[in-house]
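dumping this here before i forget
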Amino acid sequence: MVMAKFNFIQIADPQVGMFARVSGMEGVDQERKNLETALTQFQKIGPAFVVVCGDMVDTAGDDDQITLIRETLGEYGAKVPVHWVAGNHDIGVDNLIPDRESVDMYRSEFGDDYYAFDHAGSTFIVLDSVLLDQPQNLLDEYKTQMDFLGDTLLSRDTRESEHVVVFMHHPLFLNNVQEPDVDFHWAPSPSNQRSGYWTVPIERRLPVVNLLREANVKTVFAGHWHRNHQASDDGLDVVVTSALGLPLGDDPSGYRVVNVSDESLSHRFQAL
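structure:
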């Protein structure tokens, strides 16, 4: 049996406010219940850190929604590091396209939207996939993030890391790296969104994948789809985790526990 050096928790889409918008429930009581249940469970797991893979809130800049995140995950971050990942509902104007004001607002609430951190000999890279999805208003930021990714992957510290793991909100792909920007029958896009809404467009996916493969990155954790899913292509795994908030498929609300050993990563989904 392989002994884990440490574990961490990946959350996706707590999306405070979505239950009210989609299901007609009033207030944020269900999201509060889910967050508090998860935090109670985290105390038994004892993670080294927590990564929230985007869509912390349903409406960017909503004070009540952000306050609930701050009162739960934010306060937990005083005990265990919590790393934030930008989602389209956190940083996109009309939940879609980021601009300078929306990015600056996000950074004032949650900090940098792309960055790296190290733990116990491994490197963890956080990307802003909203910039990969819709960069047209911020082409300078898109280029800066790509330069950051390349420089980080080529650095000596990263090359000597036991594992290099990437976190982002949008999955890079749901089937394979070369999949076009079209809908699969099992993953239709919302009626008011582009085809292939759930993944990074292939035009900007391929440069990211090429960088990851050059650095021998094996695993990318994501959210956005509100379902559990895993896709592999030539040694690169994309692991999608169901929502801590409102799921959109058959999977329940929950989070992912990732065990890290010297040789490998293993993970499991934990329902609330």
